[in-house]
Amino acid sequence: MPHSYPNLLSVSFFFIMLFLVLSSLKFIFTNK
After folding, report:
1. Distance CA 24, CA 20 (A)
2. Rounded distance, CA 9 to CA 3, Å?
3. 10: part of which helix (H) or strand (E)?
4. Which band of pLDDT confidence, cut at 50, 70 and 90, is reported for residue 2?
5. Which 3 state secondary structure label does DSSP give 4?
6. What transmembrane ranges does the database entry give (predicted)?
7. Which of 26, 28, 29, 6 has the alpha carbon at shortest distance from 18?
8. Between the CA of residue 30 and those of 4, 16, 26, what are the distances in Å?
9. How big is the chain by its Cα radius of gyration, in Å?
10. Per-residue pLDDT tens for 13-27?
């Protein structure tokens, strides 16, 4: 059994955070 599951979980969490930051920045720039 490979031990790459926690790494995949952290990568998916990182992508979720990146998506939230980008969407909030987009919302701020469109609201200006």
Report:
1. 6
2. 11
3. helix 5-31
4. low
5. coil
6. 6-29
7. 26
8. 39, 21, 6
9. 14
10. 999 999 999 999 999
